[in-house]
Amino acid sequence: xxxxxxxxxxxxxxxxxxxxxxxxDVVLWARRPEIAxxxxxxxxxxxxxxxxxxxxxxxxxxxPQEAMAGADFVVLALPAQHLRENLQNWVALAxxxxxxxxxxxxxxxxxxxxxxxxxxxxxxxPPERVAVVTGPNLAREIAERQPSASVVACTDDETARxxxxxxxxxxxxxxxxxxxxxxxxxxxxxxVIAVAVGIADGLxxxxxxxxxxxxRGLAETARLGVALGADxxxxxxxxxxxxxxxxxxxxxxxxxGVGERLGRGMSVAAALAATTTTAEGxxxxxxxxxxxxxxxxxxxxxxxxxxxxxxxxxxxxxxxxLMNRSAKPERHPWPNERxxxxxxxxxxxxAESVWRFVRERxxxx
Length: 365
Description:
Helix content: 40-55%
CATH class of the largest domain: Mainly Alpha
CATH superfamily of the largest domain: N-(1-d-carboxylethyl)-l-norvaline Dehydrogenase, domain 2
Strand order of the largest sheet: 5-2-1-6-7-8-9-10
Structural class: alpha/beta
Order of helices and strands: EHEHEEEHEHEHEHEHEHHHHHHHHH
Strand content: 5-15%
Number of helices: 16
């Protein structure tokens, strides 16, 4: 099999290595000629995976047509907000019946669509020809060939198993899952929760705070996922809990790093400027909040992350907003369940109360 990988950043480069180690021939498209030249002549991408030697099965090009030629899989490893524009330029070059594979963990800002939805729309292909690779995929650890498990999600089982075979190695173990909605949504929302955990770490809170945010963040993710038609069991698996824990607890996490810098007192602009690669949670938090409001799903952690990043809320005040919410049972009814008689009559609208709370803290007794 042959794969064309579009995006020579840290994860695109690493997944190219995984595919090649599994026996798949790979052409890696790079925007920058110096990256392509380094990969072809030295088998290295020192800009994104310093010290890692890539297999000889990986070669690189700056020509998208050359990358596409004869590909069985077109793997997309771009920032979420750049996918639509780039794919529009490339889709006419794709071989017939090619399978599109998304490595992207984000939600489109303008449309609040998942990446597989964007691919289906732009490439005009059915969902059976779009797969998603997700899970605890910290690129540097995988580039070092440390053992890792992942998920290949596709509505078509045969397609999922083909891609599974194309990327299974002695250190990278992919499982299949038909729940594309749940897998993609979990991968996008965990980035926002990681920003929140990073803020708590930057404020020097301890493991209780981190565990609480991870657990309640998982609850928020599952509520939204079920409202969108996902299987709730997905969120207890690699794409859900596994990816969430890895991203919230690792110093390799870009989203956690942004949050940690905010918690230490850096401005949003400075925290983002110190991030050399894309932190998807920063852009995706707003369309995720939009989806939650559209489907009447409470996501208070997402709400305060949006408030910190885009509405000027101080990180320490965001903690107060979360801790002073109305008391409620741990288990919310799923969106398709009827609220019991003793449940809250009104949902807790965190976003609507953010600034009222801040004003009360500043001028109240």
